[in-house]
Each structure stands twice: as C-alpha cells, then as structure tokens.
Design brief:
- Strands 1-2 form a two-stranded antiparallel ribbon.
- It is built from four helices and two strands, in the order E-E-H-H-H-H.
- By secondary structure, the protein is mostly helical.
- It starts with 5 loop residues before the first strand and ends with a helix.
- One of its GO terms (biological process) is FtsZ-dependent cytokinesis.
Length: 166
C-alpha cells in the first residue's frame, strides 16, 4: 500500500517529491551502452570480413602474377635455347670456312705457303724495356729498342721462308 505522499511508478511506490526521470535515464543509458557495444561488435566483424575478402583478392592477384612469370620464364628459356643453337650454327668452322671462300675470296693455303719456325724467338729482358734510370741511358727509348728487336725477328723469319738462311 502506498503512503499518502507516494505515487506508483511502474508498480513501485515513489515519493512525490523525487523526480522519476533519473531512473528512466539510467535505463536509457544502459540501453544506449548495449546498443553501442552491439554496433561496435558488428562493425568489427564487418571490418574483419572486408579484410578477409581483401586478402583473398590479393592472393588471387599474386597467383595470376606467378602464373604469368612462370610462362615468361618458359618463353625466355625457349628463346635462350634458340639463341644458343643459332650461336652454334654461326660459329661452326665449316660455315666460317664457306663464308671465307665464297664471300671474302679466301682460299686454303698450300703446304708450301705455310712455314713452321723451328728456332725459338729470343726473349727480350724486361730490364731493357724499363725506363732509363740515369741521364746517360736516356738516349734510346724502350719502345724504339722493342721495335728494332721485332723488325730484326721479322726480317730473319722472312729470310728463312725464302730459303736464304739454313
């Protein structure tokens, strides 16, 4: 039984001077908090779903790129084999000989034209090719001396091929 200064709100006695709005606000705040939590959970699940879809799409794109790269590797391997075969064809001795004879007008040398030198080429000491250390040695340059040795070797080799020297 309610007392004289009490009123009934939702089945409960409340004093007449106490505002009823405070209890209603608490209930409203609790409902708002629950709905915010529910919306946050739904948004998080939606975000996770979008992330999963994005990852799947990226995997598909990477898979296609892998297939394309494997095809490109196979094409390049085939092209490499073709080029190696072409190099082998172009550098074969029989092809080079045919081109030398037909296009360049060359011919095979006779045995008389080929000369084998039996004598060893004299070795020029490195010291004689180095720069002179004193002013007195500066008369002859090392390259001039080397040139004279090469000319001397060339003239002796040409005399041997002509049969002048035994």
């Amino acid at each position: 039984m309610p007392q004289a200064n009490h009123i009934m709100v939702q089945g409960y006695p409340v004093r007449a001077g106490v505002p009823v709005v405070t209890k209603v606000r608490r209930i409203t705040k609790r409902r708002n908090l629950q709905s915010v939590r529910l919306i946050a959970i739904i948004a998080a699940l939606f975000g996770l779903g979008l992330l999963a879809v994005f990852i799947r799409c990226q995997l598909a794109v990477l898979g296609y790129q892998i297939v394309e790269l494997k095809q490109e590797i196979a094409d390049l391997d085939q092209q490499n084999r073709h080029l190696e075969l072409r190099i082998a064809e172009l550098s074969s001795p029989s092809r080079i000989e045919t081109l030398a004879v037909t296009k360049l007008g060359m011919c095979k040398p006779d045995e008389v034209q080929v000369v084998a030198l039996k004598e060893e080429v004299p070795v020029v000491p490195v010291e004689s090719l180095s720069r002179p250390k004193t002013v007195g040695q500066a008369k002859e340059k090392p390259l001039e001396k080397l040139y004279r040795v090469v000319v001397k070797l060339g003239s002796s080799a040409s005399k041997k091929t002509l049969g002048m020297i035994d």
